[in-house]
Amino acid sequence: LYGVDLYTVYYNSHIHSTESDPVFYGCTVRKAVFGGSFIPIRILENETSVKEIIIETSVTYIADLAFSGCDRLTSIKYRGTSSQWSEIDKGYRWDEDTSPYEIIYNYTGE
Questions:
Q1: Is the pLDDT assigned to residue 70 strictly greater than 50?
Q2: How many CA atoms lie within 13 A of 10 on its CB side?
Q3: What does the alpha-carbon distance between residue 108 and residue 55 come to, in Å, rounded to a whole number?
């Protein structure tokens, strides 16, 4: 996928990143929607164009460095409650070096 301009990425735990090979490396991703049970390691690491992340309530784990370096991130929109959000296991430095972002709970949009 290197060098592809992707406006919205829908991810449902079927593609896997590795520590040395993030799935969307070199792509332009502006919005990412995550379903399935987990968000893999480094999936959007250093993806400087991403502004919005939507997370379904089925997600129970956000892996290490998943959103690290997303320095234009403005919001994480979570479809569940704040207490459900706090129950999600979040890996090492999952959101390190991101811009200040807002978490929106009970999100119902697209």
A1: yes
A2: 1
A3: 11
